[in-house]
Amino acid sequence: MCSQHGYQYPRPAVTTDVAVFTIRGQRLQLLLIQRAGEPYQNRWALPGGFLDINEDLEACAKRELAEETGISGVYLEQLYTFGSLNRDPRGRVISVAYYALVPSDRLQPKAASDAADVQWFALDQLPPLAFDHQQIAALAQRRLAAKLDYSTIAFQFMPKTFTLSELQAVYEILINERLDKRNFRKKILALKEIEAVGELRRTGNHRPARVYQLKNPERVDIIK
Questions:
Q1: Which residue among 69, 105, 158, 177 is least enclosed by CB atoms within 10 Å?
Q2: Residue 6 pLDDT > 80, yes or no?
């Protein structure tokens, strides 16, 4: 309900926060910034910031990610809205969280804006995080793992070209278990989401493997 001169009720501030995942050194890793100012100065946190009054949510998430880490043009998906009363010591702040998945070879993050530093951390070795960002990161990981069963979301971690063994390794890292090689390849090829590029790639002493690329690299499809 509005009065003649404005809203009758106080309006909370809105932020967006982004959990950016990649796979480096055979481990799932999360991108964190070190906060340059208060609150939580020098603590690690997810990239994010306040929504401008004339800005939509995803635009805010992309802008804050670019301003604080230099990263842009990544796959972004809305995760959840976090709004507990005391989540931000500055006042009533609601955060709309997103998560992003990126191949490690595309990223060269650099601290910018109000970030003192930016680094990758293995998900099982995160430092204490500011605000409720530990909760956001944990939910983002669970959402990612859940979507493996019914979508092509894992493909977002892949470089421009890859082998089926490299793709299988990504799945195994995300679910933390070994997969049967024959069944995995049969399932992936049946999706018709990848295509051979006419090249072979040798890794170590193994025989050369066929190289593939995504047919629609910017899209995540539902497969069930």
A1: 177
A2: no
Q: pLDDT digits over 173-213, tens only?
A: 999 999 999 999 999 999 999 999 999 988 777 789 999 99
Amino acid type, 136 = I
Domains (ranges, CATH) in the chain?
A: 2-147 (3.90.79.10), 153-214 (1.10.10.10)
Closest by Cα among 161, 156, 136, 159 to 213: 161
